[in-house]
UniProtKB/TrEMBL annotation:
Domain Acyl-CoA thioesterase-like N-terminal HotDog, chain residue ranges per copy: 24-112
Annotated SUPFAM superfamilies: Thioesterase/thiol ester dehydrase-isomerase
Annotated InterPro entries: ACOT8-like_C (IPR049450), Acyl-CoA_hotdog (IPR042171), HotDog_dom_sf (IPR029069), TesB_ACOT8-like_N (IPR049449)
Acyl-CoA thioesterase-like C-terminal domain segment(s): 134-272
Superkingdom of this protein's organism: Bacteria
Protein name in the entry: Thioesterase family protein
Pfam families referenced in this protein's UniProt entry, alphabetically: 4HBT_3, 4HBT_3C
UniProt source species: Piscinibacter terrae
């Protein structure tokens, strides 16, 4: 399977007014639908394209609220951006993702610049990481068994267990890095959005054979990374299911940048068909 770098997809986008069209290749699919992190990256990029041209460089993505409504399949997908409100420090932009005339996802991005404050910085400390990631259990791409998009990632397992191993756990800690990608040319907020959605839900580890799972909603809170932050090293995602009933799972995640800085917190509702 030929791999299409994220940078190629983004550079090949087409804009016409508030509409930005992206082409989704086969290698970024997750089953019959596209990897949700990629769709969210499209939304953030479209928000920037439509509304961010006049914004100062200090304006960063602070939060992203996502509702996944219908599958986004291989082929062209159009994202329509609309500025809802632009204040002195905070700007809110909506993105509607459509394919073949059907609404597939709705997103609202909150962009903000730093404010004067007397509140001292509070920086969470990343859990300990291994000195040699090669010692961790690898989660390699296997055609026909694992989602296509995982071919773009080097994934190593920390705490918890891989999907469908029959381990009764509610947690999953993964170490991740993007392969064959010029990360230096990509904004850190796009990398954060992509990596924050790359981990499978911990609940899948409890099954002994494959079952489908799908995100219904995703709330992402970003901690803007400093300019020049290293992006092509190992990211760490700590995921924890905090409630489950009736086929729905509520989970929370923390994403750490390669430097050890907290990059994002996420809250997700996932459906599990099994």
């Amino acid at each position: 399977m030929n791999l299409t770098p994220l940078s190629s997809i983004l550079s090949g986008r087409r804009q016409a007014g508030p509409d930005v069209t992206f082409e989704i290749p086969q290698d970024w699919l997750q089953g019959r639908t596209s990897f949700g992190g990629l769709v969210s990256v499209f939304a953030v990029q479209a928000m920037r394209d439509v509304a961010g041209g006049s914004w100062p460089a200090t304006v960063s993505l602070r939060a992203l609220q996502t509702s996944f409504i219908a599958p986004v399949e291989q082929g062209p997908v159009t994202v329509t951006g609309q500025v809802l409100r632009e204040g002195k420090n905070v700007r809110q932009v909506q993105a509607t993702v459509k394919q073949r005339g059907e609404v597939c996802a709705l997103m609202v991005g909150v962009f903000g610049s730093d404010r004067e404050t007397i509140v001292p910085p509070l920086e969470p400390v990343q859990p300990s990481v291994p000195k040699d990631h090669d010692e961790l259990r690898a989660f390699p791409f296997i055609p026909g068994t694992r989602p296509n998009f995982t071919a773009h990632l080097d994934m190593r397992w920390g705490d918890g267990a891989p999907p469908f191993t029959g381990v009764e756990t509610w947690i999953a800690a993964l170490h991740l890095r993007l392969l064959d990608e010029d990360t230096a040319s990509r904004p850190s907020e796009l990398m954060t959005v992509l990596m924050a959605d790359a981990s499978p839900t911990p609940v899948l580890s409890r099954f002994r054979s494959p079952v489908p799972a799908s995100s219904v909603s995703w709330a992402l809170e970003l901690r803007p990374l400093p300019p020049g932050e290293e992006l092509d090293g190992w990211w760490r995602a700590d995921n924890k299911a905090i409630a489950a009933a009736g086929g729905y799972v509520n989970q929370q995640s923390m994403l750490w940048a390669p430097s050890g800085a907290l990059a994002a917190l996420a809250y997700q509702v996932v459906t599990v068909y099994g």
